[in-house]
Amino acid sequence: MELIVFDLDGTLLNRNSTISEYTSETLKLLSKREIAYTIATGRTLHGARAVLDGHQFELPQAYKNGVLIWHPDQRRYSSSTTLTAPELEHVVRACIQQGVTPFVFTLDEDHNSTVYHPALQTDADRELVRILGIEDKVSMRALDELPSDTAVTHVNSIGASAAIQAVVRHVEDEAHLVAYSGLSWEGDDWYWLDIHHSDASKGGAIKTLKELLGLERVICFGDSDNDLSMFEAADEGYAPANANEVIKSAATSVIGHHDEEGIARFLRERFELDES
């Protein structure tokens, strides 16, 4: 039995960050054939929920690059990698020094999430809040209210390219931290930043998913650096034509562009899916 694992942005989703009608029909065909599929994304659950609703994503899912596993049947998270107080201090200091706002995500014993942050500084900060879908979904508190014993899962931020890259370079000095960044809005000089413990990865997450589901093989799809560990852990890894060169070189094969439903077309051919 095989498990298909999708990255979202730049992979399963089109340029409008949605699942196209053709891709949606392909997922239905997979479900009809009882072919297991799920996601491993850099997004939060709240940031992904709107695009996944109605598309039969019923199996455990990996969020924040493997930091969190969401169990939809039990409506709970599981996580084994959190940031220590010194690691968090290192990240927050680096962000503030570069004039970007750190959003500190936490998880309590009841699997509820609270996001702590200093005062929002820019329109980009407010847009990040909107994109993450956390204004009404997740409790938000001032950073100085963060309890010392809270489990911190990751830190997000957004800012100008130079500022974000400066934070990334600063974080690279910390042995147990990993930072990912990329263009936030096409045509704008805004970059997103995601920092978490180095023990968390999409690769580790799909190994966990295999064990949870009792499946033997993994076929994955991804387009960016945070998908490398997933490609290494999977039996087959496919990159859409829009993927970066590092991912393409690590892929089993390069397939169609994400905005031309490349993943859906590949799956229909690979599994001989039809609508009859």
Compose a concise summary of this entry.
33% of the residues lie in helices and 26% in strands.
What do these coordinates show?
- The protein has 2 domains: 2-79 and 200-270, 3-Layer(aba) Sandwich (Rossmann fold); 85-197, Hypothetical Protein, Haloacid Dehalogenase-like Hydrolase, Chain: A, domain 2.
- With 276 residues, the chain is an alpha/beta fold.
- The protein contains 10 helices and 14 strands.
- The two termini are 23 Å apart.
Mean pLDDT: 89
CATH architecture classification name of the largest domain: 3-Layer(aba) Sandwich
Count of DSSP-assigned helices = 10
Spatial strand order of the main sheet = 8-7-6-9-11-10
Q: Count structural domains.
A: 2
Give the H and E element order: EHHEHEEEHEEHEEHEEHEHEHEH
Q: So, the CATH homologous superfamily of the largest domain?
A: HAD superfamily/HAD-like
Q: Largest sheet, if any?
A: 6 strands, mixed
CATH structural fold name of the largest domain: Rossmann fold
Helix content: 25-40%
Note poorly predicted spans: none
CATH first level of the largest domain: which class?
Alpha Beta
% residues in beta strands: 25-35%
End-to-end Cα distance, whole Å, is: 23 Å
DSSP strand tally = 14
Give me the Rg, rounded: 18 Å
The secondary-structure class comes to alpha/beta
Which helices and strands occur, and which strands form pairs?
Layout: E1 2-6, H1 8-12, H2 21-32, E2 36-39, H3 45-52, E3 61-63, E4 68-71, E5 76-78, H4 85-97, E6 103-107, E7 113-117, H5 123-132, E8 139-142, E9 151-160, H6 161-171, E10 177-183, E11 190-197, H7 202-213, E12 217-221, H8 228-233, E13 236-240, H9 245-250, E14 253-255, H10 262-270
Parallel strand pairs: 1-2, 1-12, 7-8, 12-13, 13-14
Antiparallel strand pairs: 3-4, 4-5, 6-7, 6-9, 9-11, 10-11
Helix pairs in contact: 2-10, 4-6
